[in-house]
């Protein structure tokens, strides 16, 4: 978006564009093609039709400015991946904890909108739970994939009682209740799909795996392992049970880059728009510190050389205010857009990707490495999984020839950050963690290695990277330059969640009051989620 501020007029129409979870969705119950029940069931269109909106709104493709507010100007910055070169809203905005209500409703409004995952999955459930249980199983998996991202932003969400007829308000579940339901739904879906892995009912609606149910089972197992690891500190017993179910399942997990969960949406990735058309995103200083410090060959794939320091990658600090030596926001942006853009996959005049990456085999190897540290059966060897995660990521990005030397590097560490425009943004590296596995290190040090490499491998999925940073404290990323939270967020601990959005406060005030009770603390950015437990990871 060339200027988010100019779009504030859209606020008046927000209820027409992104609707709250309590809105009527009768329109979706009407078959747009006027097919008879027999015709639509014959080619599975009746139950398969709602899937495209689910796929294209897990990470919204269009319009790009929705995606910018759904992910980029919060999680992508909070996790240390990217940062905006322009100090939006006069330098007081969500990226530096001066939350902007209109921005912060999009992680909520997109999944609950008319085309979002909740309403579309409910439509599949109404039409297919009994007649087409295998297709409905896919909807269950996608609902978990979409909504774990929402609960991991806000905490309590509307889930088990979504769309309940006759309810006076949309009732929330606690995050613990939501996670328990996630595990139940994944169990059900995996069990159903495993009974008929060669069935091709879903082929014409599948934007990821071409209708191959075995691949969906691998993804569901991997997603269950991700969620099990997520709760390992708050509920280690349940985490172990759920994780070991995935680790022991006969169909297995994502194991190669051919298994990666990547949505083939056909449209240009929205990151391309705000990376190279709007110049609204650049490399984060934390990414520079780690990638350059490690001389990581993936760096020049993920990012472009800067124009401010020739031949180098250069990031900028997240959470910058409007600096006093600039007359306005545009003048400050003009200097900082010279820093590193995202790489060729997100540059309009190159060959930008049309794919959305939401889970990779590399991530799964790092999940297994941590599971091994925690003593979970079937996880294998922590070091072997760690190194396999690195090599799988290097292969994914076409730099596999560099992997062996990288894995053996026992000396490189993250570097200090230097801002060539404004030295007040300079900061020393926060970690001296090296790459090479050290079998004699503590589990805490081993975990820092695992999560640091996992963080690199998950790029550009800032939502998942932010969740893992909050859960573990790794990698050690630079704090914001300015903290405009008014004391509700500790600069060093960093932001833990987004407050419940204005759209929901206005349309479902009774539900939000209930949610605040379930949250157990203030509805602000400093309150930890249920799984976000302070202290040691072991």
Label the CATH architecture.
Answer: Alpha Horseshoe
Q: Give the rounded overall mean pLDDT.
A: 92
Low-confidence stretches: 2-40
Q: Outline the biggest β-sheet.
A: 2 strands, antiparallel
Q: Per CATH, what is the topology?
A: Serine Threonine Protein Phosphatase 5, Tetratricopeptide repeat
What distance separates the N and C termini?
43 Å
Multimer state: single chain
Shape summary: globular
Name the helix and strand elements from N-terminus to C-terminus, one letter apiece.
HHHHHHEHHHHHHHEHEHHHEHHHHHHH
Q: Structural class, from secondary structure content?
A: mainly alpha
Beta content comes to under 5%
Strand order of the largest sheet: 1-3
- From the alpha-carbon coordinates, what is the Rg to the nearest angstrom? 22 Å
CATH class: Mainly Alpha
Considering DSSP H and I runs of 4 or more, what fraction of the residues is helical? 40-55%
Tally of distinct domains: 1
